[in-house]
Amino acid sequence: MDWSIYDWKQAHEGDRFFMLRTGDENAGIIFRGVFVSEPYEDEDWAGTSKRKHYISIDCYDAVPADKKPMLGVETLERHIPEINWRSGHSGELLSPDVVMKLVNLYTEFVELEIDDDDEEEKDFDNNPSHGDHWECVCDSSDLENTIIVFAKILTKRGSPDLHGNTDDFDEKGNVVNVPTIGVKYVKEGVGIQGIILCHTEENELRSLFPAFYDGTAIELELTKIDEFSNGVEAVLTGENEHGELRFHNIDYYAWRNKYNIGEKYTFQIAALAYKAEVVSEEGREFEICGDDAIKFYTELGNEVEYLEDGSVKPIKFGAAELVALLQNDDAYPSDGEFQSPIQGRVSTKDFFGCPLYRIPILVLRDVESEGTEIPLYAKSNFFDHKPRSGEPVRGYLWLTGRLEKDELS
């Protein structure tokens, strides 16, 4: 949003700010942010004939208007008494010493509290649908009927895959062991996967999802199994010396009783994009400014550098070669946010009328590894041109995997 600013000559794009509320029992820091423009002149927001200066701002960690902020005015006065926290006018330029005190207070009272709240909300969702996965490979305007069409294609043209078993209930409510069978229909590495429960009276299609069968073989030590309530699907967590991957195991129904935590298995890993884009030229570098830059300088043991206007010199980073996979949502652990330079030729695959790009990206890159290449499938209409080798791409994905071979047979 835009905010009127009194001492506008001292404000610059990239400066960080803390917004202070005064005058009532909820006084304190109510949000923080960054200036995203230089100051500009415009009409008075109050409707007078005077001209005022404004600046565009981004805001983070906002406190609800009827709540007392965690960094209240009493705490501010106790730890930083050199500032008058109970009055003011449209901003005050803070000294580097005050900035560091305020950053440390914010970390202690606000960020740690936010992290604790996030941890309480992260419970595994053991009853998800695959609707959002189908939206990644087809027209979502009539998703329900589209999924029915895919189910008919699978049952008419699909071929049996692996066999397994699971616990289920009979018509009297008793727990019974039911044979399961996978059915798949594959064209050029992409296809439809179904899991069928073979009841005595009739078969039941228990799960249906898009699947990919040309993943990269990666050996992982199995560290966790999050099983779905349907008993035939799970998210597996595995790790090797370069990092951790959490993926939807598409043939869990066959091996669910034979997996052992702590043992190593080789899985073929692939990914499906919920959203993807080529990173713009402007997005291939970033900088940290203001109090974040001060913190970066001091934590490295360096002196803080300043520009001629007195503002902190930003620290710039290039990100064209950045490789990252962040799987931080425990409710949906196989999902993640990614970025990677494209590792080779991008090809086009047809998913039953929906064109997908097969994009080779990197995961598991650390100081000891150049990374592991896996295929990412993404709708072609995510992009304004066919992605090229070397271009950085980013977005959100669903990671999937299956055993490379019948290791457990």
The CATH architecture of the domain at 2-121 comes to: Roll
What kind of assembly state do the chains in view correspond to?
A: single chain
Strand content: 35-45%
Q: What is the structural class? A: alpha+beta
Describe this entry's structure for a reader.
The protein has 409 residues and is α+β, with helices and mostly antiparallel strands. 16% of the residues lie in helices and 41% in strands. The chain has helices at residues 73-79, 96-121, 131-134, 143-157, 252-255, 290-299, and strands at residues 2-4, 16-21, 28-35, 40-43, 51-60, 159-169, 175-187, 190-198, 203-212, 216-227, 234-240, 243-249, 264-278, 285-288, 315-318, 324-326, 335-341, 347-351, 354-363, 372-379, 392-403. The strands form four sheets. Strands 1, 2, 3, 4 and 5 form a five-stranded antiparallel sheet that branches. The longest helix has 26 residues, at 96-121. The chain is elongated. Mean pLDDT is 89; it is low at 115-121.
List keywords for this structure.
21 strands; 5-stranded mixed barrel; 409 residues; 5-stranded antiparallel sheet; ph1033 like fold; 41% strand; 6 helices; alpha+beta
Care to give the gist of this entry?
This protein is of the alpha+beta class and 409 residues long. 16% of the residues lie in helices and 41% in strands. Strands 1, 2, 3, 4 and 5 form a five-stranded antiparallel beta sheet that branches. A five-stranded mixed barrel has the order 10-11-12-21-13. The chain has a four-stranded antiparallel beta sheet with strand order 6-7-8-9.
